[in-house]
Write a structure and sequence with these properties.
Helix content: 10-25%
Shape: globular
Radius of gyration: 25 Å
Strand content: 25-35%
Distance between the termini: 36 Å
């Protein structure tokens, strides 16, 4: 079977209940807060952590099958792994660190092959340097070259960019994107950074307290989370309880009651009277221009007062108290130019519009 497939279950010491697959050439991001079990999942795939129950298969080879008593030791699994702290040998040069992954080759071939991989990760000329003589980004490239030099069947990345600065991180993002075009292998990335996952991954798998909650493309998980818990984990702040009133007069929509305010939303499964959770991304909330088009062209128009407006670079994030009610908060994000043009500031009275097609309704209870 092509790619990596894993089904992992255990109660102790770290509870796990996950199932996922990663195709050749695909990047799958395991996303969740610290302590959610993401690194334990990688260690189990690599064979570094035993499991009482589970099955792991990669490219048709079974690495773990607890039902039939099969366990392939870590040294026999074709796994390349990059750790958060690099895990380089401090007394060895960059070239020798990479060569250590090639013990199955004759000694003469090891150094030549290691040099080729260092060149592929843009470290040509730094072969003699030891880790202490290199920057964080350079050490991470050595770790990546060492992992790939083994010609693994799967590449596992455990928070690989968290120890470097933003500029270095962005360069490493680009280099990883270049490498993945060349290497047709599954890549499993562990990160707590949603932005990083959305940028690098083809699919994401949300993990919380050792349990897999939802898998899908970054767009699907960001716009259509399966529950309020998933919505929180991917960073949504405009998340509110509501109740379905019934179908709208407009086909394909429902009417949701939000603390006495009736909102039109994209159609959702549910029956009238059912409690739901609903969300709207901050970036799609619309600020009605003071000299804008007639109101009839806007939908879900809500008056309110700006409680705060914070400028972050070329964007402004604002919190609007709908109808001056602290329990009805809607956050929005717009460009600095648009905020200045509309004199958006704390204390100002505004009107906002929540586009119905951008409101996502979920069954309640998944908190």
């Amino acid at each position: 079977m092509s790619g990596l497939r894993a089904r992992l279950r255990q109660e102790r010491p770290m509870p796990l209940d996950v199932a996922f697959h990663c195709r050749p050439g695909e990047v799958l991001a395991l996303v969740g807060p610290s302590g959610s079990g993401k690194s334990s999942i990688l260690r189990a795939v690599a064979g570094l952590m035993p499991l009482a129950r589970g099955r792991i298969e990669c490219d048709g080879e079974v690495w773990l099958d607890s039902l039939h008593g099969r366990f392939l030791p870590a040294r026999r699994r074709r796994v390349g792994m990059v750790f958060q702290d690099y895990a380089l040998f401090p007394h060895l040069s960059a070239l020798d660190n990479v060569a250590e992954a090639l013990t199955d080759r004759p000694r003469a071939q090891r150094r030549a092959r290691a040099g080729e991989w260092l060149e592929r990760v843009h470290l040509k000329g730094l072969e003699r340097r030891r880790p202490a003589e290199m920057s964080g980004g350079q050490r991470q490239r050595v770790a990546l070259a060492r992992a790939l030099a083994r010609e693994p069947a799967v590449l596992l990345l455990d928070e690989p960019f968290s120890a470097v600065d933003r500029a270095t991180r962005e360069r490493l993002y680009l280099e990883l994107a270049e490498l993945r075009r060349e290497l047709a292998m599954p890549v499993v990335l562990v990160t707590h950074d949603m932005g990083e996952a959305a940028l690098l991954a083809d699919r994401m798998y949300i993990v919380h307290e050792g349990r897999g909650l939802q898998a899908g493309s970054p767009e699907e998980l960001l716009l259509r989370p399966a529950s309020a818990l998933v919505a929180r984990l991917v960073g949504h702040r405009n998340l509110h309880p509501g109740r379905i009133l019934g179908p709208s007069a407009t086909p394909g929509r429902v009417v949701v009651d939000w603390r006495g305010i009736h909102l039109e939303a994209a159609a959702a499964s549910g029956i009238p009277g059912q409690g739901v959770d609903w969300l709207i991304p901050e970036g799609v909330v619309q600020l009605m221009r003071r000299q804008g088009p007639p109101r009839r062209r806007w939908e879900n128009v809500l008056p309110g007062r700006v409680a705060e407006a914070v400028t972050l670079g070329d964007a402004v994030t604002a919190c609007v108290l709908v109808r001056d009610e602290p329990s009805r908060r809607i956050r929005m994000r717009l460009s600095l130019h648009a905020a200045r043009r509309n004199r958006l500031a704390a204390g100002e009275r505004v009107e906002i519009s929540l586009p119905p097609e951008a409101i996502h309704v979920m069954p309640s209870g998944g908190r």
